Amino acid sequence: MRHIFLDTETTGLNANQGHRIIEIAAIEIVNRRPTNNSFHFYLNPDREIDPAAQEVHGITLEFLQDKPKFSEIASDFLEFIKDATIIIHNAPFDVGFINMEFGLIGKPPIEGVVDNIIDTLKMAKDLRPGQRNSLDALCRFYNIDNSQRSLHGALLDAQLLAEVYLAMTRGQEDLMIDFQYRGSDNVGEKNTNRPTNLFVLKANDDEIKNHEAYLNKMKGEKKLIW
């Protein structure tokens, strides 16, 4: 199964008030394994950035002046997410902005392009009712290192979201994925630090028999809880 973990940063909180996307990032995982394919761009919004939003992500209008507009990357973005399951934390926010951008250039809504959209905030609220379920809170709960997240950034947040989602859906709170993306504008950046061939040593027949004998001995000595 192909999953795309997606995040955006914006000029403000409300797409209906003319605010725009200024950073968009998506990373790909296939069959629960990172492929190192990513999509990441900073974007020129052609408008001012709200001071409150800038305090969150630290992106300035000066930095964005030479960056592409959303219309210039829209076709590549659609191709990257096509037919995938999209996973977003607080999906209505990002989907609203993406559909606003698509609408401005005559593109279809994201719901008609992808296979499914999963909101991890809703998932977390169902799993942890009454708890804080921000991305930072979930990183703490699942022991995922978010020490580099002093400011919000779409690429880092997409990477953290992937780790959180895999932990949530596997039930392994110590799950860690070695994401080593360097944050470029290129699709398909490779991670040369991640091992590609892992050696699996299987137990032989004698080892399996000895293990079963040990378990039978334990059963005879005391009551087990499993």
Describe this structure in words.
Helices cover 38% and strands 16% of the residues. It has one domain: Ribonuclease H-like superfamily/Ribonuclease H (Nucleotidyltransferase, domain 5, 2-Layer Sandwich). The chain has 226 residues and is an alpha/beta fold. It is built from 8 helices and 5 strands, in the order βββαααβαβαααα. The radius of gyration is 22 Å and the shape is elongated.
Shape: elongated
The number of distinct β-strands equals: 5
The CATH architecture name reads 2-Layer Sandwich
Spans of at least 5 consecutive residues with low confidence:
171-198
Number of helices: 8
Which strand order do you get reading across the main beta sheet? 3-2-1-4-5
The helix content, as a percent range, equals: 25-40%
The succession of helices and strands, N to C, reads EEEHHHEHEHHHH
| Average pLDDT reading | 85
Structure summary:
With 226 residues, the chain is α/β, with parallel strands linked by helices. Helices cover 38% and strands 16% of the residues. The chain starts with a strand and ends in a 5-residue tail after the last helix.
Task: Name a few traits of the molecule.
Nucleotidyltransferase, domain 5; 226 residues; elongated; 8 helices
Summarize the helices and strands and which ones pair or pack.
Elements (H helix, E strand, L loop, with lengths): L1 E9 L10 E10 L2 E10 L8 H7 L3 H4 L5 H12 L3 E4 L2 H14 L11 E4 H8 L7 H7 L12 H17 L34 H17 L5
Parallel strand pairs: 1-4, 4-5
Antiparallel strand pairs: 1-2, 2-3
